[in-house]
Amino acid sequence: MSYRIGFDVGGTFTDFVLQSPAGELTTAKRLTTYPDPSEACLAGLDALLAAAGVAWSDVAQAVHGTTLGSNVVIERKARGVGLLTTRGFRDVLLIGREKRYQVYDLQIEKPRPLVPRRLIGEVTERVLADGSVRTPLDEADARRAIRALVESGVTTLAICLLHAYLNPQHEKRLAALAAAEAPHLTVTLSHEVSPTFREYERTSTTVVNAYVMTAVRDYLRGLGAALGGRGYRGRLFVMQSSGGVATADAMERYPVRMIESGPAAGALMAAAYGELTGHRDLIAFDMGGTTAKLALVENGRPYTTTAFELHRVHGAAGSGLPMNIQAIDLVEIGAGGGSIARAHLGVIAVGPESASSVPGPVCYGRGGIEPTVTDADLVLGYLNADYFAGGSLRLDRDGARRAIATRVAQPLGLAVEDAAWGVHAIVNTNMELATRVVSIERGRDPRDLTFVAFGGSGPVHGCRLAQALGIPRVILPAAAGVTAAIGLLAAEVKFDVARTWVRRLDALDPAALTTMYDEMAAQAAAVVRGAAVAGNVTLARSLDARYVGQGYELTVPVPAGRLDAAALARIRAAFDEIYAARYGYANPMEPVETVTWKLAAVGGAPRVALAKAASDGRDGGLKGRRRAWFPETRGWTECAVYDRYALAPGARLDGPAIVEERESTSVLPPGTSATVDEYANLIVEVAR
Amino acid sequence: MNARVDPITLGVVWGALQSIAVEIGTTVHKTAYSEQAREGQDFSVAVFDAQGRMVAQGPYSPGHMGAMSFAVRNALAAHPVETLKPGDAILLNDPLLGSGHLPDFFITQPAFHRGALIGFAVNILHHTDVGGARPGSQAVEGIFDYYQEGLRIPPTKVWQEYREHEGIVGIIAANTRTPDKVLGDLRAQRSALHVGELRLTELAERYGRDTLFAAMDAIVARTEANMRAAIRAVPDGVYRFEDFLDDCGPGTEPLRVAVTVTVDGEQMTIDYEGSSPQTASGMNSYINYTRSYSYAAVKCLTDPYGPMNEGALRPITVKAPEGSFLNPRPPAGGGPRAIICYRTFEAVIGALAPALPDRVAAAASHFANPTFGGWDRARTRRFVAYELVLSGTGARATKDGCEAMSYAFNASNIPVEAQEANQPLVVERFEFIRDSAGPGRFRGGCGIRRDLRFLADEGKLTNLSERQRLAPYGLFGGKPGALARTIINPGAGEQVVHGKQSREFAYADVISFQQSGAGGYGDPFERNPEAVLEDVLDDYVSIEAAREQYGVVLVGTGGDLQIDAAATAALRGRRR
Known about the structure:
heterodimer, A: alpha+beta, Dna Ligase, domain 1, 9-stranded mixed beta sheet, 6-stranded mixed beta sheet, 35 strands, 31% helix, globular, B: alpha+beta, 7-stranded antiparallel beta sheet, 5-stranded antiparallel beta sheet, 22 strands
């Protein structure tokens, strides 16, 4: 018996999915708990397994997605994080790269640094750009600096020295000295976290790693122990920002790699749904309680980046914290079901502030007083007060109405329905801009793409957004409310390693290179093999290279097996080819310089078989009718309400209509029509 | 007039033109060879329509931007559109026709769709060296005309029907101290434009030429209307301001920047009447460059998030007397003119401060943009290096200035690890200077210090720094920032280097660039004492300066420092 479970913590809801040995999926969701999100995880898992009659000892794999790391950073929650660096360079982190991310805004601000200047120490040492030591590490000075930081309250120390990506000896020695001086100090080293040149970007990555380390470690260990205590015998897996999963203990040292864990899973699952329905170019649109996240999927694969930035200001390039990690390229904005609506400067403003799950929207009846998008959706009749989260949460419709009336409608002199519609429309406009960023700014016309809308609020808003953007087709997946959790089960086990070796390609010794790759393969494969549930470990190798004299690299595949002169020649040819494809020309006469040799070990990819729709649909799935408000019909309209679980494959639904399922509600506005596919997905055609 | 274009198509075409500009820029950035282009991003890009109007620009240096419209017009005056064929591209670096100094190479590349001209992809990049008296081609001292500043290229079709003119490129290579970097960057510029050309053609193919043209018309018209509305919101009036540049080399007098800004309904005129005459040095700002930063200042104060294209420039007129250093007659020198741009920009901001007190900022710190040359012993080759030491920005009405942030001139610093990998130098310090920030209710950003040790023989420094004599101004009671300094071998026996001096240096000399702090906003005695304490704990402000400049008395030591509220109140009360 081998069941698998996935659970994904969002700002408002935690989503769960259980996969049976036959591939059947059972899903659930519940409110995220604060301050300890693992409470909801454990309670939800217990309930899900109990309902399915599955024992913990029958679960072979548990995969977890969490935005814990990202939240710790955005809320500047961590304490006692210090930085140690080369003497003369304590301000590298604070100075950054200095370019204005908004050219003309005189009121611009830089993000608050994660480490205050008073907790940045310096040590006497210096390595040069060729890796040679110009000034040996002054150990007495280093011990003093470590002690001073510890006395100032530092409990987690990031160490980033100049040129450590080439020669890490001083960083390693500092770690040993720190262990001697302060045995309880947690230390993270730049050459391990991010072995690449450019000191600010490497420091930033290392500091974020340090910043989230304690919280992530404590959390994952606590969760792992709790699962073990329940009889789970497997290992806890975590989704990384890259879209691969790794074991929780592998993440303890490199928590920065799971900084955007949950959203990556959503993008992966959207790609999988696209694949099933024959659409390989799409926009993954995940709207939850707190934020909306968008990602472009091209040719079946989520668009990834190595120049990832955490928490950009209004999406502007260069405004966030740079991270040298492989990550799915997501655009995230503060627009979710919990986004707070208000009257401001004579218009309706929505978000980015969120009521999250505590207190939550007014209609949750948990003390929220500020109206939210979910309150508006309820007032408009889109949501069913008695069947929210499968009926586990009864919504207070009158409370929602009162809040919108007093805080939005009355100040603006609007009818309550008009105000609620305004809130719905304004949050859509905010998301429309973000959708343009992921499509147009990446060179894609949204009208050529398919929109996959999921997350608790995604299917409520997805069709409207598609209408506004001229997107002709929307997929509203079955179990749309827990898609990210399903994505966890579709991900491969993956671990990346990299080594910087700056050298002319034609001056490399292929034998030394082969040896280096053997070491890297052993390291990465050990991590994956220790984790893989079944199947082989495959290795994918690649190289970041550039023409000698340039500053940025392109990634080129490195052939498998022992490397020889012919293999290097193939790499060279591939580089010119990729360069030409990207930039329109190549310079085959120019020498090529290697920078970073990379290897990804990938464990056997589990395939998630979606369950086929079970219903014979004899009753057409119609569960009733209710009034909902649409501007096209100039107000309240009786519209059909369908039960997602009772829809038959091939059925056709014309908007206006509402489809309910446990984790979400799909709204089909006037002008849309949907067909039900064999997996119970709704494929919506949007009239132009 | 072209057909109307529906809102969705307009949105998509507009976004696509903007993406084309960004893609051109990204391609330059990722494929360039020189440190100042690939790390400092000292380049700019734009897309023009078939009539030579700028319709989209990338998020780079505003200084190049305002000049671009005029440079393209000048390129097309020399090579009328009817003579252009696919694959042609026009290069120019003439200071009067381009952006005011020879290192900036403009390339204008037409794009065609089924034989018809549909627009231009354009970029400009600051090249490492174009010859002339000093490595880096940016000398102030000893220059009296631009013939001393390097190779001058009038608008020239260096590429014809996708073929490069080897002879001309050979002449360029033979007239620079750094042919590898110049040719590499030139190739990056050219290939980025080729990408732009392809994208423009694809856009026309996809939406049709007429729709594209109609969209371009609408973009310019809507932007102009938007800018006019934004100017209308500025109170009408005639606003004057003056500020000074330190001088134009050792032993010279300060240069006056006098500006009169007239806001009249939906139009604005910026007139530099009363500014100093043109100089017999490199310190001259050709009119296109003066225009650029004047436009940029107006945009910052009126419509910072609106689109930037030809339409945004139309409601603004910029004038400077011919023969002044802000509108010199050729062949005036202009190599180091970048150092002038903060002052023209800040003069406009200063003039409009009484009208827009909530939108302005006090004067920023000033960057240093020195260039170096000599013999690289380890790599056995001659070298030319470029540095950009940027610092903080001025305080605002409701908040402090930013630490370490480009201002009018928008570029990045060069990472220590990138600089050291390619040049014979070791950076020894890169840090904030304590007590340099201009005090105020909100304080300016700090000055930054960057020390470079050169492991090079026959060293030549061409210094280019400012605010060494006349400090960045504060506003509404805010104090100026501390002055800048350039020092060789700081410490005992240190030598002070004038901000615009050209001189030699020896193997292992350390050159220290210590930039000014930015100006404060509002009375420093009204600053929240808690904010002063935080600055002291973070070592931006000393305990002494907290008392002297802010009237905040601190007691205790180290992490236990506390505000002595009674003594602070007494001190602040006494000095009122």
